[in-house]
Amino acid sequence: MLKSKISIIVADDHPIMLKGTQQELEHAGYNVVAVAINGASAMEVIMEHQPDVAILDIEMPLLNGFEIIKHLKKEELKTRFILMSYHKEKGFMVQAKNIGVNGYILKEDSFAEIELCISEVMKDNTYYSKSFNDDFDLVTETELKKILLLTPSERTILRLIANGNNSTQIGEALCISPRTVQKHRSNIITKLDIDSDTNALIQWAHNYKEIILTL
């Protein structure tokens, strides 16, 4: 498809970043139909124009990029969503995958990579910045699948463990007995396929804290 036929909306609360991205896209021949400086404005212009591509910053006032995408996915728009952020943390990547983001690029990436991302999502492919290597994606997907085997109660307990709570504190927070907490911990260890050792679970929760806290 010709670049001039690809309609794009850009949203970023940093004026310099917003203007720079808009100018780069327009200079390259893309059709930038609107820009927005906060999440609420982004939601409005996306609904109004229903562009082929929406490039969104994650952290914006009023609504963040994730919240915008979650809401608009329910509207079944044709729009492909690309997040553009400084964040490289696992938790952001996992959250992006969970809500079906089409592309995830970093603000430090070259414009050539932004164009590659646009090209791929327009083919209905998913594109993540080359800054994330294949091993990172594989580990993230593997551990995410394990966590998704847990019940809602087990995930709640795992989040509390990841935040440094011991069994007594977890029991008090959830109004359940220490014995019930221990039973949940045992089930979690089995489903995550880790050593049946309290310290092993604590270490695992620490290692994948960014993933755990997004679920």
Please describe what this structure looks like.
This protein is α/β, with parallel strands linked by helices and 215 residues long. Helices cover 54% and strands 13% of the residues. It contains eleven helices and six strands. It has helices spanning 15-27, 39-49, 65-73, 90-98, 111-122, 134-147, 152-162, 167-174, 178-192, 198-207, 209-212; strands spanning 7-11, 31-36, 53-56, 80-85, 103-106, 127-128. It has a six-stranded parallel β-sheet with strand order 2-1-3-4-5-6, sandwiched between helices. It is elongated and about 65 Å long. The mean pLDDT is 89.
Write the layout of secondary structure elements.
Blueprint: E1 7-11, H1 15-27, E2 31-36, H2 39-49, E3 53-56, H3 65-73, E4 80-85, H4 90-98, E5 103-106, H5 111-122, E6 127-128, H6 134-147, H7 152-162, H8 167-174, H9 178-192, H10 198-207, H11 209-212
Parallel strand pairs: 1-2, 1-3, 3-4, 4-5, 5-6
Helix pairs in contact: 2-3, 7-9, 7-10, 8-9
Provide keyphrases for this structure.
6-stranded parallel β-sheet; 54% helix; single chain; alpha/beta
